[in-house]
């Protein structure tokens, strides 16, 4: 993450807001259809490999074939979307086409799922980190040689291709036989039957997370997307904190629920309290230091990103809580409600951006995202009886922090 942030900032400074904005706009268009490429199969493939190891070749072969089809479909949808959104922008269409085809390479991620099922993810980590570091060096070289925008796009394409080939290579190296993979219609039906709700959920998540950049690119210009993306990059870098903490405490919370509902609620309340405290520990200083941070990292050309960061950083409060309650939804078997709140966030984000961007420009996109995060991660819990207790626990976390502070 540190290397990625450093090189990403350097690339942003080199390209400038206009070209950096086009790059992020294209990536947002492609990301919109990422759920179609994966077909929601990731967790399902791991589950089936663990439950039925004797059918691993059938599961891997069928999932690989399905994801190749999904990747090609996602590629076609991304190309169609950019052709509709920017019919006269040949550069944008080329960038989206190159990024979009990388989704076809994602089909090789079935190998990742096999290693996960064997508890041997270290090989995948070595490969992905190694390729990432090599390509980070390539990007630095492109900056030093004053390469054009498309060189960075092709570098991203190369990274995807190298990881895909590498995954197949380490699978064969560790004893797997690609020739043994089999495609079965029955297995395909079973996989797709389990995965289609996750495709819808994934689409909603991508709309929820990326629609602000796409709408900025349509309603303003690429320079605005570049400035906004610079702020978002700094704001979102903190999201690893709740992910790491929740991954650590999740098994303990699952275990305690089996024995005591009251203790489960107590543990969950403690988690919400920690999430609020950590989010505010990030948001409060960043609100006042945002201009200095943007100037230090991105330079004067991105000065307008300072106020955007000061506003967008408050999304972390609801993101942290949303990640925590997302785990609780899983424990309580509320997956459909999890989809519902993501869908609500996507709808609010679209409507808020449609209203706010014409009124406030780049700041309007940050406001739209903040409203969407608040609606999905906090206010949605008040709607349904099964989630209302989460709303009151989150509210208690806000009140407890206020009392502790003052």
Give the biggest beta sheet: none
Q: Please identify the structural class as seen in this structure.
A: mainly alpha
What is the helix tally?
A: 17
Mean pLDDT: 89
Structure description:
The protein has 17 helices and no strands. The chain starts with a helix and ends with a helix. The protein has helices at 2-31, 34-38, 42-51, 56-85, 90-105, 110-117, 122-144, 149-173, 185-219, 222-236, 240-257, 261-297, 305-312, 315-331, 335-360, 362-377, 388-405. With 406 residues, the protein is mostly helical. The model has no long low-confidence stretch (mean pLDDT 89). Helix 9 runs parallel beside helix 15 and helix 10 packs across helix 16. It folds into 2 domains: 2-183, no CATH class; 222-405, no CATH class. The chain is globular.
